[in-house]
Q: What sequence folds into this?
């Protein structure tokens, strides 16, 4: 997808992402499209998250994509050196938000000294507890970015009254819905009813569903950082698979860790299934309570027993490349929205194991309502039955499964939305145009 260049004077916005891969990367993809449309973007990042911007900065010149690198203020409840949610568990979310809020004053000082200050803040919804008041103080607009589906957004806001008294969640929801505009990492046709419902909640039409977006990639810069295993080695392994749609890919994103019993059950299921597979194993972060050292540990001897048909990668993986490869047929994941969209674009059947937060809403939509994915189990501490999971692995590679057929229909809708004249294409173009009309 690309948008038309804006034939107006250069417009400047400030982008403030939430420090998690599933939030930063889609915001970068949106920023890339806005930059192609002639909008200048300054990203606020802490030093350890600057590498995410490397592909974007290698594509655009320094006058289009700029950075404001600020050290993350310390917080008594955050482990020292933690600047990304992959370093900690979800319980640390309010503390990360509180630490980030301390950037308010240096950003305000930077804004007041800038010769061409931003006309709006494009902020992750998780940051709106402090970025929305900041934008109000600067007398500019807030554009909240939600890396979720309209189904999740409308469902969460329908329960707003129940959570509005909670300090973090209540304030975040209130400030997000009060924002001048809302950008959803989704497309209207996925679930038209909830998209319309979300517009009713916001009480305006400045809601843009802009996905699917092509991931920003540049020669010499890997998306999300250097992969634990070189991409060409992963690609060579996949190329060696003789049968299309014969590989199961297993990954649970950057924030989920599995305990010893879960890892053993998963390893046992992969071993019993007889399928070819890639298993991406996250390295536990410093903020994870893991005194026994048994988080995300591959079972002893497992790799020797599956040698030749299985590939275990410890750390960051080139996930979009894997999911788009003709050899990959299904994907066991936590149903995080970013991973779900990558699976959709890759054309692989999803096997759902929702763990936390929006995962459960995504399961309700994709599994329960649309019948487009296979449920495996549910819950952060759940231990799957290895024998049943082995059967699911094997059965998931059948090309005639009704869930796969339904999923491919949804993929067609997504691709149509992204094409010129499609809903997401037009929404992205309108977003850029609306921003360009803002007066500082």
A:
């Amino acid at each position: 997808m690309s948008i038309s260049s804006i034939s107006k004077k250069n417009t400047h916005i400030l982008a403030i992402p939430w420090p998690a891969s599933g939030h930063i990367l889609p915001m970068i993809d949106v920023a890339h499209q806005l930059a192609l449309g002639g909008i200048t973007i300054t990203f606020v990042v802490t030093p350890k998250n600057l590498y995410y911007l490397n592909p974007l900065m290698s594509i655009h010149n320094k006058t289009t994509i700029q950075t404001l690198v600020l050290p993350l203020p310390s917080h008594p409840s955050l482990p020292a050196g933690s600047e990304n949610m992959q370093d900690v568990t979800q319980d640390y979310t309010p503390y990360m938000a509180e630490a980030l809020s301390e950037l308010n004053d240096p950003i305000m000082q930077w804004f007041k000294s800038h010769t061409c200050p931003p006309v709006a803040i494009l902020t992750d919804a998780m940051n709106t507890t402090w970025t929305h008041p900041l934008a109000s103080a600067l007398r500019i607009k807030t554009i909240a970015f939600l890396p979720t589906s309209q189904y999740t957004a409308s469902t969460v806001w329908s329960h707003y009254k129940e959570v509005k008294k909670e300090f973090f969640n209540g304030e975040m929801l209130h400030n997000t819905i009060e924002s001048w505009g809302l950008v959803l990492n989704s497309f209207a046709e996925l679930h038209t009813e909830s998209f319309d419902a979300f517009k009713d909640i916001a009480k305006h039409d400045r809601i843009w569903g802009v996905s699917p977006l092509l991931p920003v990639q540049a020669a010499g810069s890997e998306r999300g950082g250097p992969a634990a295993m070189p991409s060409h080695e992963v690609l060579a392994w996949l190329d060696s698979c003789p049968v299309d749609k014969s590989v199961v890919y297993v990954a649970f994103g950057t924030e989920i860790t599995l305990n010893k019993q879960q890892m053993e059950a998963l390893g046992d299921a992969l071993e019993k299934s007889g399928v070819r597979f890639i298993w991406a194993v996250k390295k536990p972060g410093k903020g994870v309570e893991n005194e026994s050292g048994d988080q995300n540990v591959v079972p002893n001897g497992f790799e020797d027993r599956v040698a030749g048909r299985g590939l275990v990668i410890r750390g960051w993986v080139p996930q979009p490349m894997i999911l788009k490869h003709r050899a990959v047929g299904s994907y066991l994941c936590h149903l995080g929205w970013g991973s779900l969209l990558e699976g959709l674009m890759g054309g692989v059947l999803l096997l759902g194991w929702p763990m936390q937060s929006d995962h459960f809403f995504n399961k309700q939509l994709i599994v329960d309502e649309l019948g487009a994915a296979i449920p495996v189990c549910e819950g952060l501490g759940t231990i799957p039955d290895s024998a049943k999971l082995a059967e699911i692995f094997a059965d998931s590679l059948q090309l005639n499964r009704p869930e796969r057929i339904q999923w491919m229909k949804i993929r067609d809708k997504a691709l149509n939305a992204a094409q010129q004249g499609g809903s997401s294409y037009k929404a992205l173009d309108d977003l850029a145009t609306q921003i360009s009309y803002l007066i500082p």
About this structure: The first strand starts at residue 11 and ends at 16.
